[in-house]
Amino acid sequence: MLRRTLVLTLMLCAAALAVLSSPAAARNVELLRGTVRPLSHSASGTAAVVSTGSGRRVLTLRSFRLDPGPRVRVWLVPRSAQGDGQLPKDRVDLGKLKGTRGNQQYTIPKSVDLRKYSSVVFWCVPFTSGLARADLRRS
Amino acid sequence: MSRLLAAVAAIAALLAVLAGGIWLFGAVVAGSTAAAVVLVGAWFAVVGLATEAATRRRSSLRMVLRIAFVTTTVVLLGAGAYTSTHETTVNEALDTGPPASRAAPAAVDDLLAPQP
């Protein structure tokens, strides 16, 4: 009886260790955060960069709102980039803006150095204009 | 048949010239919103006038290209107005986590750096 209990306990401990050491069990961490502020369009919301337990890094936009514009892209740019009226040459394109309102997130490529690209710009391509931006700081 | 082909080719050329100008002046050359609007507007005016001049002695082509030019302008203005006023709402599930200030600074630096 004692032996059976011991074996069962060991098996449970091994299973718990396996789960805890798996990548999925690794915890998410919010690395950066900033407020979305308007440039040429009205905008609001919170932008954050989260490192997920699975090893991905994502840009999240919470309670986001931006006055619409044609062909809006989401770019990561260095903090020093103007981004309001001048086309930032040094940028990382995260893709087309999914929506002008609501919660949304974008995968950040692994090659991106977030110590350098720490601002988000919402860029209107046809009008060569930054609609809004968020400067991210360490959470 | 040759007239039809000529009309189709002329319309295709007109659209290509207009689209090329939008891309060149709106997205490449212009450094600001105002410059993009002015340059693209000027490009349309130049192309419109050039089309009129080029088809002065070809009345059959002239009307076809006028229609194509006006239709393109109206469609582009309409598309611009639509995308500038149309709201789209998304509600994705967001990844969240505790702030990095609770973690060791070195670990945070590793996560901010390019990932292997």
Fold and architecture overview:
Chain B: Keywords: Membrane, Transmembrane, Transmembrane helix. Chain A: Keywords: Signal. The complex is a heterodimer of chains A (about 140) and B (about 120). In chain A, strand 2 and strand 3 form a beta hairpin. The longest helix of chain A is centred in the first third of the chain and has 20 residues, at about 1-20. Chain A has one domain (about 25-139): Superoxide dismutase, copper/zinc binding domain (Immunoglobulin-like, Sandwich). Chain A is elongated, with a radius of gyration of 21 Å. Chain A is mainly beta and about 140 residues long. In chain A, about 35% of the residues are buried. Chain A has one helix and nine strands. In chain A, strands 1, 2, 3, 4, 5, 6, 7, 8 and 9 form a nine-stranded antiparallel sheet that branches. Chain A starts with a helix and ends with a strand. Chain B has one domain (about 1-85). Chain B is mostly helical and about 120 residues long. Chain B starts with a helix and ends with a helix. Chain B has helices at about 1-30, 35-55, 60-85, 105-110; one strand at about 90. Chain B is built from four helices and one strand, in the order αααβα. Chain B is about 75% helix and about 5% strand. At the A-B interface, strand 1, strand 3 and strand 6 of A face helix 1, helix 2, helix 3, strand 1 and helix 4 of B.
Q: Give the SSE string of chain A.
A: HEEEEEEEEE
By DSSP (H or I, 4+ residues per run), the number of helices of chain B equals 4
Count of individual domains of chain A: 1
**Oligomer type:** heterodimer
Span between N and C termini of chain A? 52 Å
CATH third-tier fold name of chain A: Immunoglobulin-like
Outline the biggest β-sheet of chain A: 9 strands, antiparallel
What is the residue-averaged pLDDT of chain A?
Answer: 84
> Separation of termini of chain B?
61 Å
The level of helicity of chain B is: over 70%
User: Shape of chain A, please?
Assistant: elongated
- Average pLDDT taken over every residue of chain B: 86
* Helix-strand topology string of chain B: HHHEH
CATH-assigned homologous superfamily of chain A? Superoxide dismutase, copper/zinc binding domain
Low-confidence stretches of chain A: 19-25
Just give the CATH class of chain A: Mainly Beta
Biggest interface in this structure? A-B, 46 and 40 residues
